[in-house]
Design goal:
There is one protein chain. About 65% of the residues lie in helices and about 0% in strands. It has 5 helices and no strands.
């Protein structure tokens, strides 16, 4: 994590931590996401806390929040990679992959995979 990212994480944590107790409760997170314009359901938020609350106290401390941010960043990177692949496959740019575009992409992939290409 760069120092700029760390500063951003600290600022985000501080903004969400309404009572400044060093922990983000369910309500802190709900309000923080709402103010940030992030649409997250109560169930999704509960799942997030359950998944990342490593000490089981029902809230996220700073290190647990960093884990959330890292997971979200990883998910975002994966989505960006998938979007790049989609754009390559969508040769005519109509935001749909036709049967012929899929066939062409699969043929290129299989040819590359069987003959070796790139740096892998």
């Amino acid at each position: 994590m760069t120092s700029e990212q760390e500063e951003g994480a600290i600022a985000l944590f501080s903004a969400f931590d309404r009572n400044k107790d060093g922990r983000l409760s369910y309500e802190d997170l709900r309000q923080g996401f709402k103010k940030s314009g992030v649409d997250i359901s109560g169930e999704e938020l509960k799942d997030l806390v359950d998944r990342f609350d490593l000490d089981g106290d029902g809230a996220l401390d700073f290190s647990e929040m960093l884990s959330v941010m890292a997971a979200l960043q990883k998910t975002n990177s994966a989505k960006q990679e998938l979007l790049k692949i989609f754009k390559v496959m969508d040769r005519n740019g109509n935001k749909r992959i036709s049967k012929s575009e899929l066939q062409r992409s699969m043929a290129l992939y299989l040819d590359c995979h069987s003959h070796g290409c790139g740096n892998g």
